[in-house]
Amino acid sequence: MKKSSRTQGSRYYPKRYDFDPAQRNAILDEGLVCHVSFVVENQPFIIPTGYCRVDDVLYLHGSVGSHFFMQMAKGIPVCVAVTLLDGLVLARTVFDHSMNYRSVVAFGKTRLVESDEERWLAAERFTEHVIPGRWEEAGKPTKSDMKKTMFIAVEVEEWSVKFRSHGVSDDPENMGLEVWAGVLPLKQVPQAPEADEEGVKGIPVPDYVLNYKRG
Ligand SMILES: Cc1cc2nc3c(=O)[nH]c(=O)nc-3n(C[C@H](O)[C@H](O)[C@H](O)COP(=O)(O)OP(=O)(O)OC[C@H]3O[C@@H](n4cnc5c(N)ncnc54)[C@H](O)[C@@H]3O)c2cc1C
Q1: Is 173 helix (H, G, I), strand (E, B) or coil?
Q2: What is the Cα–Cα distance from 36 to 154, expressed in whole angstroms?
Q3: Which residue in 14, 34, 132, 170 has the most C-beta neighbors within 10 A?
Q4: pLDDT digits (tens, 9 = 90+) for 40-72
Q5: Which residue, by CA, sits nearest to atom 30 of ligand 1?
Protein backbone atom coordinates (compact mmCIF):
# COMPACT_ATOMS: atom_id res chain seq x y z
CA MET A 1 0.00 0.00 0.00
CA LYS A 2 1.33 3.47 -0.84
CA LYS A 3 2.50 5.97 1.75
CA SER A 4 2.30 9.73 1.35
CA SER A 5 2.52 12.86 3.47
CA ARG A 6 -1.10 12.44 4.49
CA THR A 7 -0.21 9.36 6.57
CA GLN A 8 2.90 10.80 8.19
CA GLY A 9 2.35 12.85 11.32
CA SER A 10 3.94 16.29 11.36
CA ARG A 11 5.03 15.78 14.96
CA TYR A 12 6.55 12.57 13.74
CA TYR A 13 7.74 10.21 16.48
CA PRO A 14 8.81 7.20 14.38
CA LYS A 15 8.63 4.93 17.43
CA ARG A 16 4.93 5.70 17.83
CA TYR A 17 4.02 4.64 14.31
CA ASP A 18 3.79 1.05 13.17
CA PHE A 19 3.31 0.25 9.52
CA ASP A 20 2.99 -3.50 10.05
CA PRO A 21 -0.32 -4.59 8.46
CA ALA A 22 -0.70 -7.23 11.19
CA GLN A 23 -0.84 -4.48 13.84
CA ARG A 24 -3.32 -2.51 11.77
CA ASN A 25 -5.53 -5.57 11.35
CA ALA A 26 -5.34 -6.42 15.05
CA ILE A 27 -6.57 -2.93 15.98
CA LEU A 28 -9.32 -2.92 13.35
CA ASP A 29 -10.46 -6.38 14.42
CA GLU A 30 -10.57 -5.44 18.12
CA GLY A 31 -12.38 -2.14 17.62
CA LEU A 32 -16.15 -1.88 17.44
CA VAL A 33 -16.64 1.73 16.45
CA CYS A 34 -15.03 3.79 13.72
CA HIS A 35 -15.38 7.48 12.94
CA VAL A 36 -15.85 8.28 9.26
CA SER A 37 -15.04 11.77 8.06
CA PHE A 38 -15.99 13.26 4.72
CA VAL A 39 -16.64 16.66 3.18
CA VAL A 40 -19.86 17.79 1.50
CA GLU A 41 -19.76 21.23 -0.12
CA ASN A 42 -16.89 22.37 2.10
CA GLN A 43 -18.64 21.20 5.26
CA PRO A 44 -16.70 18.49 7.11
CA PHE A 45 -18.75 15.76 8.78
CA ILE A 46 -17.60 13.03 11.14
CA ILE A 47 -19.93 10.15 11.90
CA PRO A 48 -19.35 7.32 14.39
CA THR A 49 -20.58 3.94 13.22
CA GLY A 50 -19.92 0.19 13.32
CA TYR A 51 -17.74 -1.55 10.75
CA CYS A 52 -15.97 -4.74 9.90
CA ARG A 53 -12.79 -5.52 8.00
CA VAL A 54 -12.38 -8.00 5.19
CA ASP A 55 -8.75 -7.93 3.99
CA ASP A 56 -8.10 -4.28 2.99
CA VAL A 57 -11.77 -3.35 2.81
CA LEU A 58 -13.87 -1.86 5.61
CA TYR A 59 -17.60 -2.47 5.36
CA LEU A 60 -20.20 -0.09 6.76
CA HIS A 61 -23.94 -0.57 6.67
CA GLY A 62 -26.91 1.66 7.32
CA SER A 63 -30.34 2.81 6.26
CA VAL A 64 -30.93 3.63 2.59
CA GLY A 65 -32.58 6.83 3.87
CA SER A 66 -29.56 8.05 5.83
CA HIS A 67 -27.83 11.24 4.67
CA PHE A 68 -24.49 9.75 5.64
CA PHE A 69 -25.07 6.59 3.58
CA MET A 70 -26.47 8.50 0.62
CA GLN A 71 -23.21 10.47 0.52
CA MET A 72 -21.13 7.30 0.83
CA ALA A 73 -23.04 5.74 -2.07
CA LYS A 74 -21.71 8.43 -4.42
CA GLY A 75 -18.17 7.04 -4.17
CA ILE A 76 -16.39 9.75 -2.22
CA PRO A 77 -13.03 10.06 -0.45
CA VAL A 78 -13.23 9.36 3.28
CA CYS A 79 -10.92 9.15 6.25
CA VAL A 80 -11.76 6.49 8.84
CA ALA A 81 -10.35 6.35 12.38
CA VAL A 82 -10.50 3.53 14.92
CA THR A 83 -9.20 4.16 18.44
CA LEU A 84 -8.60 1.73 21.29
CA LEU A 85 -8.00 3.45 24.60
CA ASP A 86 -5.64 1.37 26.75
CA GLY A 87 -4.92 3.57 29.74
CA LEU A 88 -4.61 6.91 31.44
CA VAL A 89 -1.04 8.00 32.04
CA LEU A 90 -0.91 10.06 35.22
CA ALA A 91 2.30 12.00 35.47
CA ARG A 92 3.47 14.11 38.39
CA THR A 93 2.45 17.28 36.56
CA VAL A 94 -0.68 17.82 34.48
CA PHE A 95 1.38 18.87 31.46
CA ASP A 96 2.94 15.41 31.19
CA HIS A 97 -0.31 13.48 31.50
CA SER A 98 -1.06 11.30 28.51
CA MET A 99 -3.08 8.34 27.28
CA ASN A 100 -2.02 4.92 26.11
CA TYR A 101 -3.76 3.92 22.93
CA ARG A 102 -3.63 2.12 19.62
CA SER A 103 -5.20 3.87 16.66
CA VAL A 104 -5.60 3.48 12.93
CA VAL A 105 -6.27 6.24 10.42
CA ALA A 106 -7.25 4.95 6.98
CA PHE A 107 -7.82 6.82 3.75
CA GLY A 108 -9.91 5.40 0.98
CA LYS A 109 -12.82 5.76 -1.33
CA THR A 110 -16.33 4.49 -0.75
CA ARG A 111 -18.09 2.08 -3.07
CA LEU A 112 -21.74 1.11 -2.99
CA VAL A 113 -21.92 -2.66 -2.62
CA GLU A 114 -24.31 -3.89 -5.26
CA SER A 115 -23.91 -7.62 -5.69
CA ASP A 116 -26.07 -9.82 -3.47
CA GLU A 117 -23.11 -12.04 -2.73
CA GLU A 118 -21.01 -9.19 -1.36
CA ARG A 119 -23.95 -7.68 0.52
CA TRP A 120 -24.56 -10.97 2.33
CA LEU A 121 -20.86 -11.39 3.00
CA ALA A 122 -20.76 -7.91 4.54
CA ALA A 123 -23.86 -8.64 6.65
CA GLU A 124 -22.39 -11.84 8.01
CA ARG A 125 -18.88 -10.50 8.59
CA PHE A 126 -20.27 -7.38 10.28
CA THR A 127 -22.31 -9.49 12.71
CA GLU A 128 -19.42 -11.84 13.40
CA HIS A 129 -17.05 -8.91 13.92
CA VAL A 130 -19.30 -7.50 16.62
CA ILE A 131 -20.02 -10.80 18.33
CA PRO A 132 -18.63 -14.05 16.92
CA GLY A 133 -21.21 -16.84 16.99
CA ARG A 134 -24.24 -14.57 16.63
CA TRP A 135 -24.80 -14.98 12.87
CA GLU A 136 -25.30 -18.71 13.25
CA GLU A 137 -27.84 -18.42 16.06
CA ALA A 138 -29.87 -15.29 15.30
CA GLY A 139 -32.59 -14.94 12.64
CA LYS A 140 -31.12 -13.86 9.29
CA PRO A 141 -32.11 -10.60 7.57
CA THR A 142 -35.22 -10.89 5.39
CA LYS A 143 -35.36 -9.68 1.78
CA SER A 144 -37.15 -6.60 3.08
CA ASP A 145 -34.45 -5.96 5.73
CA MET A 146 -31.79 -6.20 3.05
CA LYS A 147 -33.73 -3.84 0.77
CA LYS A 148 -33.76 -1.20 3.50
CA THR A 149 -30.03 -1.57 4.10
CA MET A 150 -27.18 -0.03 2.20
CA PHE A 151 -23.74 -1.65 2.35
CA ILE A 152 -20.72 0.49 1.67
CA ALA A 153 -17.19 -0.74 1.08
CA VAL A 154 -14.30 1.54 1.93
CA GLU A 155 -11.40 0.42 -0.23
CA VAL A 156 -8.43 1.43 1.92
CA GLU A 157 -5.69 3.05 -0.15
CA GLU A 158 -3.43 4.21 2.62
CA TRP A 159 -3.31 3.91 6.39
CA SER A 160 -1.26 4.66 9.46
CA VAL A 161 -1.09 3.07 12.88
CA LYS A 162 -0.03 5.00 15.94
CA PHE A 163 0.28 3.83 19.52
CA ARG A 164 1.51 4.80 22.95
CA SER A 165 2.17 1.93 25.32
CA HIS A 166 4.66 3.11 27.90
CA GLY A 167 4.58 4.54 31.39
CA VAL A 168 4.93 8.03 32.79
CA SER A 169 7.46 10.43 31.22
CA ASP A 170 7.99 13.18 33.77
CA ASP A 171 10.60 15.87 33.43
CA PRO A 172 13.56 15.16 35.75
CA GLU A 173 12.92 18.33 37.77
CA ASN A 174 9.44 17.04 38.71
CA MET A 175 10.52 13.63 39.99
CA GLY A 176 10.72 14.95 43.57
CA LEU A 177 7.05 16.00 43.66
CA GLU A 178 4.96 14.13 46.22
CA VAL A 179 2.28 13.21 43.72
CA TRP A 180 1.15 9.68 42.86
CA ALA A 181 2.13 8.82 39.31
CA GLY A 182 1.49 5.79 37.17
CA VAL A 183 -0.76 4.24 34.56
CA LEU A 184 -4.43 3.42 35.06
CA PRO A 185 -5.07 0.67 32.47
CA LEU A 186 -8.49 0.70 30.81
CA LYS A 187 -10.06 -2.27 29.08
CA GLN A 188 -13.31 -2.99 27.33
CA VAL A 189 -14.79 -5.61 29.67
CA PRO A 190 -18.38 -6.90 29.36
CA GLN A 191 -20.65 -6.74 32.38
CA ALA A 192 -23.24 -9.41 33.33
CA PRO A 193 -25.70 -10.04 30.42
CA GLU A 194 -29.23 -8.68 30.95
CA ALA A 195 -31.82 -10.99 29.34
CA ASP A 196 -34.78 -9.48 27.50
CA GLU A 197 -37.95 -10.18 29.50
CA GLU A 198 -40.22 -10.60 26.45
CA GLY A 199 -40.57 -13.61 24.10
CA VAL A 200 -39.67 -17.23 24.84
CA LYS A 201 -38.53 -17.67 28.43
CA GLY A 202 -35.77 -19.88 29.79
CA ILE A 203 -33.27 -19.72 26.92
CA PRO A 204 -29.81 -20.08 28.42
CA VAL A 205 -27.28 -17.34 27.81
CA PRO A 206 -25.03 -18.62 24.99
CA ASP A 207 -21.37 -19.29 25.69
CA TYR A 208 -20.36 -16.72 23.08
CA VAL A 209 -22.16 -14.08 25.19
CA LEU A 210 -20.89 -15.37 28.55
CA ASN A 211 -17.30 -15.57 27.29
CA TYR A 212 -17.35 -12.39 25.20
CA LYS A 213 -14.11 -10.44 25.04
CA ARG A 214 -12.37 -8.09 22.63
CA GLY A 215 -8.74 -8.38 21.62
C1 LIG B 1 -6.85 8.58 22.75
C2 LIG B 1 -5.86 9.56 22.16
C3 LIG B 1 -5.55 10.71 22.82
C4 LIG B 1 -4.64 11.62 22.27
N5 LIG B 1 -4.40 12.79 22.91
C6 LIG B 1 -3.62 13.74 22.35
C7 LIG B 1 -3.47 15.03 22.92
O8 LIG B 1 -4.09 15.37 23.93
N9 LIG B 1 -2.64 15.90 22.29
C10 LIG B 1 -1.98 15.57 21.13
O11 LIG B 1 -1.24 16.39 20.59
N12 LIG B 1 -2.10 14.37 20.59
C13 LIG B 1 -2.92 13.45 21.15
N14 LIG B 1 -3.09 12.24 20.54
C15 LIG B 1 -2.29 11.96 19.35
C16 LIG B 1 -2.99 12.52 18.10
O17 LIG B 1 -3.83 11.50 17.59
C18 LIG B 1 -1.97 12.91 17.01
O19 LIG B 1 -1.21 11.78 16.68
C20 LIG B 1 -1.06 14.04 17.46
O21 LIG B 1 -1.84 15.20 17.71
C22 LIG B 1 0.06 14.35 16.49
O23 LIG B 1 -0.42 14.61 15.26
P24 LIG B 1 0.53 15.14 14.11
O25 LIG B 1 0.38 16.61 14.04
O26 LIG B 1 1.88 14.54 14.19
O27 LIG B 1 -0.17 14.39 12.95
P28 LIG B 1 -0.85 15.05 11.69
O29 LIG B 1 0.24 15.70 10.93
O30 LIG B 1 -2.05 15.82 12.09
O31 LIG B 1 -1.35 13.74 10.98
C32 LIG B 1 -0.80 13.30 9.73
C33 LIG B 1 -1.12 11.85 9.56
O34 LIG B 1 -0.49 11.07 10.59
C35 LIG B 1 -1.29 9.97 10.88
N36 LIG B 1 -1.71 10.02 12.31
C37 LIG B 1 -1.66 11.08 13.15
N38 LIG B 1 -2.14 10.74 14.36
C39 LIG B 1 -2.51 9.44 14.26
C40 LIG B 1 -3.07 8.54 15.17
N41 LIG B 1 -3.35 8.88 16.44
N42 LIG B 1 -3.31 7.29 14.75
C43 LIG B 1 -3.03 6.89 13.49
N44 LIG B 1 -2.50 7.71 12.60
C45 LIG B 1 -2.24 8.98 12.97
C46 LIG B 1 -2.54 10.09 10.00
O47 LIG B 1 -2.35 9.30 8.85
C48 LIG B 1 -2.59 11.55 9.68
O49 LIG B 1 -3.28 11.82 8.49
C50 LIG B 1 -4.00 11.33 21.06
C51 LIG B 1 -4.31 10.14 20.38
C52 LIG B 1 -5.24 9.28 20.92
C53 LIG B 1 -5.59 8.04 20.15
Answers
A1: helix
A2: 10
A3: 34
A4: 999 999 999 999 999 999 999 999 999 999 999
A5: 9
- State pLDDT tens for residues 99-116: 999 999 999 999 999 999
The pTM is what?
Answer: 0.94
User: Ligand 1 pocket test: which of 103, 161, 183 has the largest number of ligand atoms within 8 Å of its C-beta?
Assistant: 103
Atom of ligand 1 nearest to the CA of 159: 47
Residues near ligand 1 with C-beta < 6 Å?
A: 6-12, 83, 85, 99, 101, 103-105, 160-162
Cα of 39 from ligand 1 centre, angstroms: 20
Domain spanning 11-170+195-210 has what CATH number? 2.30.110.10
Q: How far apart are the C-alpha atoms of 193 and 150, rounded to whole Å? A: 30
